[in-house]
Design goal:
Layout (H helix, E strand, L loop, with lengths): L1 H47 L8 E3 L2 E3 L1 E5 L2 E7 L6 E4 L7 E6 L22 H18 L6 E3 L7 E4 L3 E11 L20 H10 L1 E4 L12 H4 L2 E4 L1 H7 L5 H15 L9 H14 L11 H18 L18 H20 L8
Parallel strand pairs: 4-9
Antiparallel strand pairs: 1-2, 3-4, 5-6, 6-11, 7-8, 8-9, 9-10, 10-11
Helix pairs in contact: 1-2, 1-6, 3-5, 6-7, 7-8, 8-9
Keywords: Cytoplasm, Developmental protein, Nucleus
Main location: cytoplasm
Subcellular location: Cytoplasm; Nucleus
Length: about 350
């Protein structure tokens, strides 16, 4: 048993060195190329409208605010200033979303974003995005990369196609620190020892983002109140939880396997599903020793089996917001074929670790 486990870990480390590192290097090169173009567009936007200040910056060879969705798809979060005059209202009526309401006693005119406040006092995510979309469209025509960048039409999101190869979504957002959403109040579960009180305090202090984008739970039934809502996002908090042990290595292997074998019609699976299931696996295995290098194979198998179960049940709850289903709106047939393909993958890795050489 131990010999089989050691063989799997050896093959996974080899896979990590050969496949995952190559994927990382290729993506890093793409990111540099993409960020040059995006920075240029955002500089142009800022000239037209100083309230939209580019917050895309490189820190230790990582771009702050950039999320890799897949090797050809990225999201850049553009942090806006001055959320302070609004109250954060999160009553759970819109899973995964919250609204920003003008503080009582504050005059409308005191807000930097006055023309985006609705009659009922809400700061409209949709109105801000619509204005931003117009500015980006104008900036694309003026910027020095105009030959290689186009706006993607037919969407309320701000999406650019770069060199006909890459798609970048630019999402206006507010950073919320020092508060924690009520809809995530059940975290951490009292009976689960991971991640421990100190890490919990750090994560909650890290806070979350409010993004102006279409919400999972709202597609197809947006009333005006709902389209004014902001989407909750916990990227930094999640990254903090995944520090230590072989967690990030495990995530890297999962992302590489997904890119190579689970990029399926109907796009049932993205890297965020992998990250979510890794967080649940951390709860199931709360001891740090469970995340030693020697356990990499066991953890990976556990996550792949959990993924199959989620795909078969057609439900994958968000880690912090369990009422939000990350498979919502995905075609059932796509989830079914992803379950079969994940099962083939898991069986292959478990019964024949050497197959990783070909995967």
């Amino acid at each position: 048993m131990i010999a089989a486990q050691a063989k799997l870990v050896y093959q996974l480390n080899k896979y990590y060195t050969e496949r995952c590192q190559a994927r990382k290097a290729a993506i890093a090169k793409t990111i540099r190329e993409v960020c040059k173009v995006v920075s240029d567009v955002l500089k142009e936007v800022e000239v037209q409208e100083p309230r939209f200040i580019s917050s895309l910056s490189e820190i230790d060879a990582r771009y702050e605010g950039l999320e890799v969705i897949s090797p050809t798809e990225f999201e850049v979060v553009l942090y806006l200033n001055q959320m302070g005059v609004f109250n954060f209202v999160d009553d759970g009526s819109l899973p995964g979303c919250a609204v920003l309401k003008r503080s009582d006693g504050r005059k409308r005119s005191m807000s930097l974003w006055v023309e985006f406040i609705t009659a009922s006092g809400y700061l409209s995510a949709r109105k801000i995005r619509s204005r931003f979309q117009t500015l980006v469209a104008q900036a694309v025509d003026k910027c020095s990369y105009r030959d290689v960048v186009k706006m993607i039409a037919d969407t309320s999101e701000v999406k650019l196609r770069i060199r006909e190869r890459y798609v970048v979504q630019i999402t206006p957002a507010f950073k919320c620190t020092g508060i924690w959403p009520r809809s995530a109040a059940q975290w951490p579960m009292p009976h689960i020892p991971w991640p421990g009180p100190n890490r919990v305090a750090e994560v909650k202090a890290e806070g979350f983002n409010l993004l102006s984008k279409e919400c999972y739970s709202l597609t197809g039934k947006q009333s005006s109140a709902e389209s004014d809502a902001w989407v909750l996002q916990f990227g930094e908090a999640e990254n903090r939880l995944l520090m230590g042990g072989c967690r990030n290595k495990c995530l890297s292997v999962l992302k590489t396997l997904r890119d190579r074998h689970l990029e399926l019609p109907g796009q049932p699976l993205n890297n965020y599903h992998m990250k979510t299931l890794l967080l649940y696996e951390c709860e199931k295995h709360p001891r740090e020793t469970d995340w030693d290098e020697a356990c990499l194979g066991d953890r990976l198998n556990g996550i792949l089996l959990q993924l199959i179960s989620c795909l078969q049940c057609r439900r994958c709850p968000h880690y912090f917001l369990p009422n939000l289903d990350l498979f919502q709106g995905k075609p059932h047939s796509a989830l079914e074929s992803a379950a079969k393909q994940t099962w083939r993958l898991a069986r292959e890795i478990l019964t024949n670790p050497k197959s990783l050489d070909k995967l």
